[in-house]
Amino acid sequence: MTVVRNRLALAALGVLALLVIAAVFSPLLAPDDPAEQQLLARLTPPAWEGGGSLAHPLGTDQLGRDVLSRVIYGSRVSLLVGIGAALLAGVVGAVCGLFAGFRGGWPDRILMRFADIQLAFPSLLLALAIVGFLGSGLWNVVLVLGFTGWVAYARVVRSEVLSLRTRDYVTQARATGVTDLTIMRRHLLPNVLPHLATIATLHIAAAIVAEASLSYLGLGVPKETVTWGSMLADGQLYLGTSWWVAVFPGLALMLTSLAINITGDALRDVTDPKAYRQ
User: Fold this and answer.
1) How far is CA 63 from CA 43, 80, 250, in A?
2) Integer Cα distance of 191 and 164 in angstroms
3) Using an 8 Å Cβ cutoff, are 236 and 87 in contact?
4) Window from 26-30, 60-64, 117-121, 225-229 with minimum mean pLDDT
5) Would you tell me how many other CB atoms lie within 10 Å of the CB of residue 65?
6) What is the pLDDT of residues 31-43, one digit of tens each?
């Protein structure tokens, strides 16, 4: 089954396209400055409710800041953290998995035991500990989420390489004097890239949720930067009276994670149709 014939995947891709557009063109799409405070308009309800205003379609928060503008700007941080963490974890995991699977022996045992040790710790708890040590900051969050996510890439790449290294074309390349580095780069890496792409999509969603969790706890991106997690933290006190302050960033976070996961599943079905048929 292709992505084009999967209506759910097409809908997910549509949501992701809107998210990317919102992140790239935030200054053009946001109706207001996300940090601008209008205390006289604080806790204005959405436009469709009584007392709402078209000037603030999704209402305002406790400081009179436009919720729609903050949701749009929050997509920037989410995408940057998700993609950055996935790229970092993917590179580190792919290198470790290629080396461990191809070389075998003690390098394989050491890397995999280190991976097992890291898997023994809950990833979010480990991220909290590292962020608490390094301090908050956008790039610190990317670094932490990349470091805590490399294991999945490494284990999948290693398992694939263990199978691929016995293939005839690899044996022939070795017999003709091709270096191990060239074999890994030309013959093994291209064969594991589809699996890396599938893991990366799922990791992006996990990293976005983890960043929101850290920001919710006050340990992620600095408070002055708009994030969905910090908006949830600010709005939790107003759920009973001004639900829109927390609901809309939470809805954006849920839809983004769901769309990325659906896209990852569709990508897996395309790259591994046998697994889908089973």
Assistant:
1) 8, 26, 19
2) 8
3) no
4) 117-121
5) 23
6) 888 888 888 888 8
